[in-house]
Every structure is written in C-alpha cells, then in structure tokens.
C-alpha cells in the first residue's frame, strides 16, 4: 500500500463543501466513491482543510493510502474517468507514508474575485461577487496592507477547533484590478480561521465603498481588542462563489 498526494480542482457550486456529510453531496464523498471503484478500502481520505459550500478550488490537496500496481499517470486517468464533471484530479504524486495534507502544510493561498456593476450578470456571478456601488481601488490597497503580518484575527473568523487560537500570520494580501470593473484579492497565510477570507473581503469592500472607516479595521486587529471595538464592524460575509483555494504549500 502506498500513500498518494492528490491535487484537486472543483467547481463548488453544486457541492455542500469539501468535507464529507451524511446525505449531502461533497467533494470528499465523490472522491471516496471513485476510489472505492478502484478497490480502495480505507475509512476516510485526508484533506488539507475544508472549503465551505459553494467555494471552488484549483489546488485543494488530499492524500490516500491505496494498493495500486500501476503508474501515477494511470491512477490519475482512472480517477478522472470515475469522477463527476465538476471535480477532477490534476496531479498524483507518491509521498512519504507520514505525509499529512493538513498538518504538513506551511501556507495556503486563496483568491477572491469580484466585479462592480449595477445589473446582474449570471455568467460572471458563477465565480465572482457582484458589488455595487463600485469600490475605490486605492482604498482596497490601503486596507489590505493593514492585514499583513501577525495579528489577532478574531474579528474576521472563528477558530477551527474549540478554544483554538485566533492569531494568524498573513504573508500576502494583495488586490489586483484585472479589468475596468473586475478585481482579484490574493491572500496567503500560515493558516486561516473559519470563513476568514470571506469576512476579510466583505470588510475591505465596505471600506472601499465608504461604509466604514479604515481605522475600524486597524483597531480590530489589535491583540486583545475589546468586544466593543469589534462589535462596531458590520456583520456579513462575501458570498462563497467568489472564493477559490488556489494552492497549498509544503516544505520542499
């Protein structure tokens, strides 16, 4: 039996997230169905982390132990022949038997895409958040720079375990204007809180629309910031369909 690292791509629109759930269609569930067709007898596939309902991925990582007597290329082809159209494996690698896709990860990179216009666009809105009124690019850049470094991000998400830490280190937080009315936010961190990226995008957009001051974000990042300061931020999340997990990085 060999451990394989699988890099996954999926359109999250019709999945109830990545993590397996009873009576719900998930990425893990579909992957395990395909593996079972290849005589996999394990209990559970390991993932680098979970993505919410509607979130996409171009670089999700999973690992599986399976007895496979052919090449990694043939395993790739076999899996893709069995997986549904909105999920595929783009790479298969042999890894050490101790490899863990979650605990061995050193950072994760997400991208969030949005566009600004008053009218709905069903095509763009499958993978982007439609925002109106429009955003100010300079404000987006300014607020994103505040997020860099090590902070208490409890105003931006929930810990992934009960009583877990809320301090995270952001390595990259960068907005790029892709077209006249389209923007992309790329963020890289050692780890993320639950729904942290969607919350960050929502609040940055609020600043860039003039709904909250830049200083409110700065205050929320102060270690042990008071509940009063944090409660001054508007509630809300950017929609899931604009978010994509693009890469999980490991030590070479």
Structure description:
It is a single chain. Strands 1, 2, 3, 4, 5, 6, 7, 8, 9 and 10 form a ten-stranded mixed beta sheet that branches. Strand 2 (46-47) and strand 3 (56-66) form a beta hairpin. The protein has two domains: 2-95, Pseudouridine synthase I, catalytic domain, N-terminal subdomain (Alpha-Beta Plaits, 2-Layer Sandwich); 105-250, Pseudouridine synthase I, catalytic domain, C-terminal subdomain (Alpha-Beta Plaits, 2-Layer Sandwich), CATH 3.30.70.660. It is of the alpha+beta class and 252 residues long. 23% of the residues lie in helices and 31% in strands. Helix 3 crosses helix 4 (196-208).
Compact summary:
The protein is an alpha+beta fold and about 250 residues long. Helix content is about 25%, strand content about 30%.
Largest sheet: 10 strands, mixed
Q: How would the global form be characterised?
A: globular
CATH class (first level) name of the largest domain = Alpha Beta
Residue fraction in strands: 25-35%
Q: What is the averaged pLDDT score?
A: 95
Instruction: Compute the CA-based radius of gyration.
Output: 19 Å
Task: Tell me the CATH topology of the largest domain.
Answer: Alpha-Beta Plaits
Percent helix, as a range, is: 10-25%
The H-and-E topology, N to C, reads as EHEEHEEEHEEEHHHE
Q: What is the multimeric organization of the chains shown?
A: single chain
Gross CATH architecture of the largest domain: 2-Layer Sandwich
Low-confidence runs of at least 5 consecutive residues? none
| Number of H/I helices | 6
Structural class: alpha+beta
Distance between the termini: 23 Å
CATH H-level superfamily title of the largest domain: Pseudouridine synthase I, catalytic domain, C-terminal subdomain
How many domains, as an integer? Answer: 2
Number of strands: 10
């Amino acid at each position: 039996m060999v451990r394989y690292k699988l890099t996954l791509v999926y359109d999250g629109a019709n999945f109830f997230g990545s993590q397996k759930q009873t009576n719900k269609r998930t990425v893990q569930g579909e992957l395990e169905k395909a593996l079972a067709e290849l005589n996999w007898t394990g209990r559970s596939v390991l993932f680098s982390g979970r993505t919410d309902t509607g979130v996409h991925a171009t670089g999700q990582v999973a690992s599986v132990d399976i007895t496979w007597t052919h090449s990694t290329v043939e395993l790739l082809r076999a899996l893709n022949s069995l997986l549904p159209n909105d999920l595929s494996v783009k790479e298969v690698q042999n890894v050490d038997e101790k490899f863990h896709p979650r605990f061995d990860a050193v950072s994760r990179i997400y991208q969030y895409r949005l566009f600004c216009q008053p009218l709905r666009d069903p095509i763009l809105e499958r993978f982007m958040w439609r925002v109106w009124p429009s955003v100010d690019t300079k404000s987006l850049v300014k607020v994103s720079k505040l997020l860099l470094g090590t902070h208490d991000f409890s105003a931006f998400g929930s810990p992934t375990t009960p009583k877990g830490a809320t301090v995270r280190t952001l390595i990259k937080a960068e907005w790029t204007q892709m077209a006249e009315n389209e923007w992309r936010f790329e963020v890289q961190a050692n780890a993320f809180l639950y729904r942290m990226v969607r919350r960050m995008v929502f609040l940055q957009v609020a600043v860039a629309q003039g709904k909250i001051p830049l200083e409110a974000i700065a205050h929320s990042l102060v270690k042990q910031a008071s509940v009063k300061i944090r409660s001054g931020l508007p509630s809300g999340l950017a929609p899931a369909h604009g978010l994509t997990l693009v890469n999980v990085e490991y030590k070479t």
